[in-house]
Design brief:
CATH superfamily: Divalent-metal-dependent TIM barrel enzymes
Radius of gyration: 18 Å
Number of domains: 1
CATH architecture: Alpha-Beta Barrel
Distance between the termini: 12 Å
Oligomer: single chain
Strand order of the largest sheet: 1-2-3-4-5-6-7-10
Largest sheet: 8 strands, parallel, barrel
CATH topology: TIM Barrel
Strand content: 15-25%
Order of helices and strands: EHEHEHEHEHEHEEEHEH
């Protein structure tokens, strides 16, 4: 397996070419970049700008393998508002196009949210969200296949696709793949169970650590400081035949960000040896 680091592990505003160099110095093989509504990767990024980003990664000796995005928390595919859902689709297509231009084989997609009355997106019942997400991911997966890019549906805290059985069936129906996040399942399950069930459907992997007794968003901690059973997780990935990138999705240190990168790379070396 290969060591990857999320662009979100770098302080906000870090230039991509600087991030690539920092990642290489810390011992990473690749960087997962992200589409946003501002910065170097947006809906308005040109082909020339993408070529320059790819060249910067190549010059740093860094592989670009996946394009993530946090935009779907603002513009969910399952929104009641048609314009919001259409915006999500536009971002999804652009994300795939950016991935193809950068030589990435995967995009990370949050497929939608389930929401209750009085919440920001209004009442989006589970069955309604499922049908909307199913249609959206089926369309994106087909477009991804045209571009040679897998659509990786991530398990996140969106009150949706809550079990590995449901995730397995969802990706099979849509033609998408699974982007598995080991830390995200710990609040209600076990990474190794998800991996054994999803098997070869897993196209990419996120790792982070989590403290169960905290049980909320503040429970995410540095690798090896929480309750993820990384030995069991790695054994399950090997059973599944997974040998691709494992991406550390960790928050940047407010000071000396290079220390986080070095610590994370060392922790991943230990995890890979388990």
């Amino acid at each position: 397996m290969k060591k990857g680091i999320s662009i979100w592990a770098f302080p906000a505003g870090t230039r991509l070419d600087d991030a690539f160099l920092m990642a290489k110095r810390a011992g990473f093989d690749g960087v997962e970049v992200a589409l946003s509504d501002k910065g170097e990767l947006t809906l308005d990024t040109t082909d020339e700008e993408l070529a320059a980003i790819k060249a910067a990664a190549d010059n740093a000796g860094i592989t670009l393998y996946s394009v993530a995005s946090g935009i779907y928390w603002k513009h969910p595919f399952t929104a009641n508002d048609r314009k919001t859902a259409e915006t999500a689709r536009a971002y999804g297509r652009k994300q795939i196009e950016i991935a193809a231009a950068l030589g990435c084989d995967t995009v990370l997609i949050v497929p939608g949210v389930v929401s209750g009355a009085g919440e920001p997106f209004g009442n989006i019942p589970y069955d309604v969200a499922y049908d909307r997400a199913l249609a959206a991911m089926t369309g994106l997966a087909a477009y991804g296949k045209e571009k040679g890019v897998a659509v990786g549906v991530e398990n996140v805290w969106n009150k949706f696709l809550l079990s590995p059985l449901e995730m397995r069936d969802f990706v099979d129906k849509t033609g998408a793949a699974a982007y598995f996040d080991a830390g995200n399942v710990l609040v209600s399950g076990y990474p190794e169970h998800w991996i054994d069930i999803l098997g070869g459907r897993i196209v990419k992997v996120h790792i982070k650590d989590f403290v169960r007794k905290i049980g909320n968003i503040t429970g995410f901690v540095d690798l090896l400081a929480g309750d993820v059973n990384f030995a069991a997780t790695m054994a399950a990935l090997r059973r599944a035949g997974y040998d691709g990138f494992v991406t550390a999705e960790v928050s940047p240190y407010p000071k000396a960000p290079e220390v986080l990168l070095k610590n994370t790379a060392l922790a991943m070396d230990a995890i890979f040896s388990m």
